[in-house]
Design a protein that fits this description.
- By secondary structure, the protein is of the alpha+beta class.
- It has three domains: 5-113, Rossmann fold; 159-227, 2-Layer Sandwich (Dna Ligase, domain 1), CATH 3.30.1490; 237-367, 2-Layer Sandwich (D-amino Acid Aminotransferase, Chain A, domain 1).
- It has 15 helices and 14 strands.
- It has a five-stranded mixed β-sheet, with helices on both faces. A five-stranded antiparallel β-sheet has the order 12-11-10-13-14.
- The chain starts with a strand and ends with a helix.
- Mean pLDDT is 88; it is low at 70-89 and 268-272.
């Protein structure tokens, strides 16, 4: 019998999407093919402490005590020698059991998990991992940098401006004037680096703009303000495509989300059942072909790998123009999340999708291993 691959499922983390990560990880742990994989749950608390075995399971089920974790962390900081400090970063070998992990499946949504930081740690450790690398993850997280890459690839995006938190705090009137000169209400105000619609506001007039900018500034130093699609009276159609692959990515069927609220915010995504997914979306064959091609182009423009959900906005009537909104390099991964549901509708089931992502992680790691990092090796 072939040896099972040892897969670390990494979840939790310090971001505002901690709870979403727990939901995704629980679904993956339930569905992953145990005949192929020996699974090691690894949790990261909101304070940044790494947990395995019973500690990871307690975090997953909501039984882990953050207050106790803070006490342990304080004690460690006062008693540990500098050589011991590294253990705060990664789980110790004993807690992982015998043997090294073959691959890590990070299910860390948002900051410190989706932005290239944890990917850099995996690269340093020379371990295969699911998803995009450092550059792709960082570009896919930063909405300002992402839009610059989309523009360079000549992909259609909505009109937008970016302001710095320091500029907003130093000159609020000047900032508001610059935004109003460039865009028309309604507009969307977003932190540049965050996911799951955290910190996003739809702004209808000047009275709402200041509070929206202040809210977004809580979550990032850069704030992206976008022109609303559809105008004041009609909402844009929100379309989504799942992309899978490395150098030769494929796109799923196109799906549509009909939000139960004015737009698809955090509450509409995770806390209410008013939003309705429509798979496949009710669009023409030509529109579907165009959107799927654009999804692959966006994936390549940001140098992504493994997986991504690519989101679009379509004008509700008239010319039905389509705009690329953003990519999400580690989308929600519960069995009812849009990414796996889109692949289910395309013919790839949830458990098989997990297996395929792990295969792609090894494929990308093997390709990277061909790269020389020493001049003498390359020359020789």
């Amino acid at each position: 019998m072939a040896k099972k691959l040892r897969v670390g499922i990494l979840f939790g983390g310090r971001s505002g999407e901690h709870e979403v990560s727990l939901l995704s990880a629980a679904s993956i742990l339930k569905a992953i093919d145990r005949r192929k994989f020996d699974v090691v749950p690894i949790g990261i608390t909101k304070t940044g402490r790494w947990l395995t075995a019973g500690g990871a399971q307690a975090l997953l089920t909501g039984n882990h005590s953050e207050s106790a974790d803070l006490v342990l962390q304080a004690e460690a900081e006062t008693t540990a020698s500098p050589a011991d400090a590294v253990t705060a970063l990664v789980p110790d070998a004993a807690s992982l059991g015998s043997g090294r992990l073959d691959v890590v499946f990070p299910v860390l949504h948002g900051t410190f998990g989706e932005d290239g930081t944890i990917q850099g740690l995996f690269e340093l450790a020379d371990i295969a991992y699911v998803g995009s690398g450092v550059l792709g993850s960082a570009a896919g997280m930063d909405k300002d940098a992402m839009k610059r890459l989309f523009a360079q690839a000549r992909l259609p995006i909505v009109k937008h401006v970016t302001v710095l938190r320091t500029a907003w705090e130093a000159s609020p009137r000047k900032t508001v004037a610059a935004i109003e000169a460039a865009l028309k209400y309604p507009i969307f105000v977003k932190p540049a680096n965050l996911g799951s619609s955290v910190g996003i506001s739809k702004v209808h007039d000047r009275k709402e703009l200041g509070p929206a900018l202040t809210l977004a500034a809580c979550f990032d130093r850069k704030i992206v303000i976008e022109q609303g699609v559809g105008g004041a009276k009609k909402k844009a159609r929100e379309l989504e495509v799942a992309v899978l692959g490395n150098d030769d990515p494929k796109a799923s069927v196109v799906g549509e989300i009909v939000p139960g609220k004015e737009f698809y915010d955090y509450e509409a995504k995770y806390l209410s059942d008013g939003s309705v997914p429509i798979i496949p979306a009710k669009i023409t064959a030509a529109e579907s072909k165009q959107i799927r091609a654009m999804a692959v182009e966006a994936f390549r423009a940001c140098d992504l790998a493994g997986l991504a959900r690519v989101d679009f906005l379509m004008e509700p009537d008239g010319k039905r123009r389509i705009y690329l909104n953003e990519v999400n390099t580690l989308p929600g991964f519960t069995s009812i999340s849009m990414y796996p549901k889109l692949w289910q509708a395309t013919g790839l089931g949830y458990s098989d999708l997990i297996s395929r992502l792990i295969e792609l992680a090894f494929e990308r790691h093997k390709e990277r291993s061909r790269t020389s990092f020493s001049f003498n090796v390359a020359k020789g």
